[in-house]
Amino acid sequence: MPEEKGSDYIKALQLGKEGAGEYYRKSVVKTEQQKFLEQLIKEKKLSCTKIADVACGGGSLTFHLRTIFPGASFSLCDFNPDALEIAKELNGKECSYSVENIYSLSFPDNTFDLVCCWQTLSWLDDPQTALNELVRIAAPGGTIYVSSLFNIGHDVDIYAKLTDHTRPEGQAGMSYSYNTYSQRSVEKWLDGKVNAWKLHEFTPSVDFSYEGRGLGTFTVNSEHKRLQVSGGYLMNWAILEIEK
């Protein structure tokens, strides 16, 4: 039988399990992107009772959103069971957890007021199918926020495979998808399926430093703006906001 789509991702995480766990736990510190998301939510004056955190990792996004929506129910899911265990440690029994494949989520149609998928779309081989699932589970009038790499300045998609030779999974010959999507592709994927969408370009307001030789974020200040780089790869972060 063919392997389930995304199983290579799990294999890579299992090889780099120690580093992945350290990353998940460190991510509980509120990031610049988390602050940006909270600003967007505040400006939109969202009121939500059912929230999905898809590809939740260690659950840090939900951890911070729970202070904004204290009365809401949260459903966290990830393809990696180890990540969900960390999410449970962080968020406790008040939330629900399930192992899910983002390409075929088990949630019913039209379920959630708010759907979030953070720093995941760029690492998928089939982003359109994943985005369709996020739209499907959102309720009519609901909002979806997707953090990913987007090429706002050019009509160019970049589909890349990166191998980090400093990590166990890279040393075993495994590579990651590390993609950047154009606005034109996003428009094609969402055409006729949602009421509105927009891309909010994200530029960090502080400098990051990284001295290693593998994947790790640092910033470079150009004449026009602060650029974010990881492993020699330009990271054009943006938040895709969708109104279903």
Main sheet properties: 8 strands, mixed
Number of helices: 8
Q: How big a fraction of the residues is strand?
A: 25-35%
Number of strands: 13
Shape estimate = globular
Distance between the termini: 36 Å
Residue stretches low in confidence (pLDDT < 50, at least 5 long) are none
> What's the helical proportion of residues?
25-40%
Question: Taking Cα atoms only, what radius of gyration do you get, to the nearest Å?
Answer: 17 Å
Written as H for each helix and E for each strand, in order along the chain, the element string is HHHEHEHEEHEEHEEHEEEEE
Would you tell me the overall average pLDDT? Answer: 90
Structural class by sheet pairing and helices: alpha/beta
Descriptive overview:
It is built from eight helices and 13 strands. With 244 residues, the chain is of the alpha/beta class. Strands 1, 2, 3, 4, 5, 8, 9 and 13 form an eight-stranded mixed sheet that branches. It has a three-stranded antiparallel sheet with strand order 10-11-12, with no helix packed on it. Strand 10 and strand 11 (226-230) form a beta hairpin. The longest helix has 13 residues, at 32-44. The mean pLDDT is 90.
What topology emerges from the helices and strands here?
Blueprint: H1 7-15, H2 17-26, H3 32-44, E1 50-54, H4 60-68, E2 73-78, H5 81-91, E3 96-99, E4 112-118, H6 127-137, E5 138-151, E6 161-162, H7 168-171, E7 176-177, E8 181-182, H8 183-190, E9 196-201, E10 217-221, E11 226-230, E12 233-234, E13 237-243
